[in-house]
Amino acid sequence: MRATTLVAVVLAAILLVTVPAAQTGPAVEITFTSTQFSPVHETEWARDTLFRAFETETGIRVRFISELAGPYMDRLQAEARAGRGSIDLTGTLHGDFPILVPAGVARDMAPVQADLARRGDRTFFPDLVRISQIGGTQAYVPWMQATYLIVAHKRAMAYFPRGSNPMAMTYDDLLEWGDAIKAATGTRRIGFPAGPGGLFGRFLHGYIYPSFTGSQVKRFKSPEAVEMWRYLRRLGGVLHPSSFLYSFMHEPLLLGEVWVAWDHTARLLPALRDRPDDFVVLPSPAGPRGRSFLSVIVGLTIPKTAPNADAAARLIEFLTRPRTQVLTVQGVAFFPTVREAAGAVPTGGMKLLAEGVTAQQGARDARVALLPVGLGVRTGEFVPLYVDTFREISVLGKPIEEVLAAQARKLEELYRAMNAMCPPPDPAITPCKPD
Amino acid sequence: MLLAPSLVFLGVFFVYPLVQAFGLSFLRPEGGLTAEHFQRMLGDTYFRGAITNSLLLTAIVVPIQVAIGLVIALLVNSRFRGHLWFLYICAIPLAISDLAAGLIWLSVFTERGYLNTLLHMVGAVREPLTYLSAEQPVWLYGAIIAAEVWRATAIVMIILLAGLQLIPRDYFETADVFGAGGWRKLWHVTLPLLRPSLQTALIIRTILAFQLFATVITLSGRQVPVLAGEAYFWYGLYRNPHVASAYAVLIMGVSVVITWVYLRVLRLREEEVAGG
Amino acid sequence: MMARAARTAILATIGTLIAAWVLFPILLISLAAFSSRAQLYSWPRAIVPTPPTLDTILFFLRAQGVWQSTLNSLIVALFTIVLAVAIGAPAGYALSRFRFPGREGFRLGILATKMFPATVLAIPLAVAYIRWGLYDNLLGVAIVHTALALPFAIVITTSVFVGVPMELEEAAMTLGCTRLQAFLRVALPIALPGLAAAAIFTFVLSWNEVFAAAILTLHNRTLPALLINAVAFAGAPLDYRFAGGFFMIVPALIIIFIIRRYLMTLWGVTIR
Fold it and tell me: Do both A276 and A303 map to the same domain?
């Protein structure tokens, strides 16, 4: 009896030790932190679809952590200060890198970029690589991007001004378009997301301001700006009045309340997914100073303290592969940074958007504008300054120069207090100051 | 002893926040007194609209609610057949929040809503009309007023009804003996005796109407700025608790003034009635 | 005779009109909640959806965070009831039984607190909660709801206990019970219906409260907080909004129906 028990115990002990050992995971695991994919379904998608495919291919498991901006930055900077870290790869918005570079977090990614170029299967959009140059080094490899575009219902195309190219429209074209629709149908069918949760402010500071004045902040109250605000007053006459209730433009498009809408790609997507055959995607309009648009770029960098830089580089290669970029588009509606991927998206609403993004990016007169950086805790004050200006000028009808002077003072105070640099396409002056 | 928990609780979670609201709105984040938060609030493009709208909506909604509430209370009190079911039905909005009321009336006034549908059915419109727009202020404000009157009249009604039920029948019978008709009975007997209830109802309803929030946002977005809504946006959208507190302090101040005014005005009248 | 009949007829007509005015919008939102998205988007629209569908309501319930926030609302409401009754009932008992200095002052204080609803309390408390670690916490929301409900709870319990004759407790005490035992065995059972009504009143107050819940929560939202955020910022589509409105009022309607007999005592009492 005692002998049997002894054998049983020894067998159990052996099993307890060996079975788990035999089930240990892959030999290599890397840690990837990001501010992106924070909604639950996106995190799950990233883990189940994206990183599982990588693990199957390379045997490297990815420990993916999505964090809020505050803790995310704190962790990276702490590791840089300590000289030792656990994060192998990190991906976040362009706006975080001007902090990460001087903090010693971001490594120069030029060698990795060169390796990728050598593969010959992917062409990064040159603008994006250029923008990733911060502080003399390439701060990140461009991973994915989002932007804001115009989506028009096909029935609206009949009213587009003859002789102009919708894929290269100007702001004057847009106004004429709205007028034509109004004259023919008696209704106003152009819509902007000017509700409390809408991104209309982005249109104001990143799209129309640089298209008319060549800058977001510097020429805030210039004569060109006054011209622009006069234009916006006229545009108000062809805007659907419910624009002030819209946060996301996909519903008004599907309802048919609005025939021409401008919004973030993610907020237009549901309409395109639902009825891809009803809509066309158009690049944003051009003004006297070019076709300005915001590019929300997410970049990948390997921290200087990364334990396993080689594995991290392999993940970068995987994520920027055209096929993976197509997967990413389908998964989370973030668009590719390589040209080959844009064309490879399967037919449907997503393809329309992807092509629109590429068309906007590749336009001859394209001018990339970036989100303001360096404003720290007061970042939330930037957009309201522009939206309030719109309200005072277009809704309340106050005199343009007066309003611009007052708002410019607030802009100046904001930038002076935070000692922040002007956002491109403004010249890189610190602190930024409207003329 | 038994009161201790309540006192402590209210002390911490009522008095402290009140004090803190003042603190937040007058202090700089780094320390030191400042008026800059109030200056920002006053200089904000939405401020003038917010205070005007809050006062305007209150001034319109409260009298209507008191009138209708009184009618309902009198009807119930007259104990006509089915008055209990009438009471139950009229009490339903007591359990409806201002957010739900906003959504309910949104289903009526939105472009693809029931108002346009009804108008279309009777042939009055072909294309849906837009009501909830600043370009249609009558409709926009009308929708908000309709929603708020619909929802909160029940509160006034219940208070007045409770007050009515407290009035001893003798008063009415005496009036009948003296040959007073319906209207005179109402004006000279019922209303004066209802004064305490009216006062309470007015105070409570005015303060709450002044702080109307979710209904307005649901129906108008920010096209009709209101004080409580601005506090919400400054805290949640602009992430500035200081200016949000300034709005809260302003709301508090106006509420106190309103209460004081009601107490004075309605008390004075009582003295007149007693003396005259 | 004629005048009487005419008067009754007029009253009945006014009554019916008012009742219809109350019921009609509820009917409309119910119709909307049972219309499919396609029906809600179409023009011209039908008022009555044919066929009615559960899709819209299901879509809402399955939408991100809705079910969780409903549970959160229930949890907060339960916490609030427990806290409000536990803190308020003793005070109500004391006010109903004892005369002590400061009694009137206390009562006036209770009345005064009704003047400062959620909009004034929520923002400073949010800042304090962040310091105390109570931010984005259901208990924190319940505490604020308790603060809002406590005045009503105290007033209701006061009048409830006033309605329980002192003699009964005194009789129990002469029979050998301690004061606490007398309370638990004699007063409490009689007061129970009234206390239950107070609990239900508190539930409705907590379930419906929007402002404080929206300010004090980020990830652990209650249903109203989720909805106002979806409506104001997250561009909730029409079917979501209508299903949300419907879903919010259904429990409240059921409750009003159940406690309809207590309505008068409940709300009427709170103002005295």
Answer: no
Task: Tell me the chain B residues in contact with residue A377 when contact means C-beta distances shorter than 8 Å.
Answer: 239
- CATH code of C64-269, in short, is 1.10.3720.10
Q: Which residues of B touch A392 (CB under 8 A)?
A: 45
In the three-class reduction of DSSP (H, G, I as helix; E, B as strand; rest coil), residue A321 is classed as coil
Rounded to a whole number of angstroms, the distance from the CA of B75 to the nearest CA of chain C is: 7
| Model confidence, pTM | 0.85
Q: What is the ipTM of this complex?
A: 0.87
What is the chain A residue with the closest CA to C38? A255
What b/e readout covers A163-198, taking b as 16+ CB neighbours within 10 angstroms? eeebebbbbbbbbbbbbbbbeeeeebbbbbbbbbbb
Specify whether the CB–CB gap between A50 and A327 falls below 8 A: yes
d(CA A418, CA A404): 21
- In this structure, chain A runs to a length of 435
Which among C22, C144, C224 has CB closest to B99? C224
Q: How many domains, chain B? A: 1
Query: Residues A114, A120, A123, CA angle at the centre, nearest 5°?
Result: 75
Q: Give the CATH number for residue A377.
A: 3.40.190.10
Range of the domain at B85: 51-236+250-275
Q: Which residue of B has its CA nearest to A382?
A: B238
Is any Cβ of chain B less than 8 angstroms from the Cβ of A381?
yes
pLDDT per residue as tens digits for the range C87-124: 888 888 777 777 776 777 777 777 677 777 788 888 88
Residue range of the domain that includes A350: 28-145+295-354
Under an 8 A CB cutoff, do A198 and C235 touch?
yes
Determine the Cα–Cα distance for residues C72 and C137; give it in Å rounded to an integer: 10
